[in-house]
Give the backbone structure.
Amino acid sequence: MDIMENVSEKNNFLKLPRVGDIVEGRIINKGKSAIFLDLGNFKTGIIYGKEYQEVKGNLKNLKIGDGLFVKIIDLENEEGYVELSVGQAGKELAWENLKQKKEKEEILKVRIQKVNKGGLLTEISGIPAFLPVSQLSPEHYPRVEGGDFLKILRELQKFIGKELEVKIFDLSQKEEKLILSEKAKETKKIKEMLENYKVGDIVEGEITAVLDFGAFMKFQKEACPKPIEGLIHISELDWQLIEDPSEVVKVGEKVKAKIIDISDDKVSLSLKALKKDPWKGIEKKYKKGDIVRGKITKFNPFGAFVQITPYSETKSLTGRLAKGEDRPKIQGLVHISEIGTKSKMAEKFKIGEEYDFQILSINPAEHRMSLK
């Protein structure tokens, strides 16, 4: 209504409209294939042809004297009328309305019509809109292990016909792009709740999902009205190299984690921050030249990863025995240059098997050990 009032106010000025302007007219005559409008101090307008056929179903209930917002597409046709379009005017007004709703951060209700691999499809005021998977709320995000495309699509199809509350995330009338966000409506609330937390806090909660890139954990303080969900990235699950997060945590498991970052409405958590760093003081237990026992855990283009087996004794090349407590599990790398080629690496080593290696270098600060 605000937009229509603005258009009406502009019409009160005695100025000549231009092609592309949206004006308000009054219906003065209705025919079988055209509608005529009084444009006030300007000429008489007409809606006919393609512009009439596209909207005639919406115009059939209008009466003589009713007002109608239209867009000027020609100032004067062969018969002297101003050619008008209802459909184009409606689209223009719809985009203006959407811009206002975005500025006001209004919450809108939409019904999901279709899905594709990237998210959900709907429309607002006849404008096609897209809700990306990344903009779904945490409770609706498809938690599919391994990111299997078909499984994600099946999860998204469950939303067809359902109504969701969203905000306008981004729009461009020129590109006819309208992007929605479901999680944006919770952003302000989450930010307010996060004021009760700070980096370094230890929180206790429950694992809600385990994916190939990490795990989600839900936690809550008494001062917060509802729980907050944070991400434990795969690199923060343990000091060891983790291939499968499900080997470390399970859905429903109660765990403690440390908050390592708070950015806007996102919380990053760490389990390994609460565990002893196995590399701390490692230079006192191992040194360059030592022979160690290790298990092959993974091949990659750079070489073979080796899980150093806990020892109570480590034998150096000189034959000296260094006695001490069990060694913690740490990862070392046999670089491909020490082996030759990928095929030779596969011939020489087997995943899961143990071999003897010599330590070439140790860098505790960067958690690196080179072997041969």
In short: The two ends are 76 Å apart (CA to CA). The chain has seven helices and 23 strands.
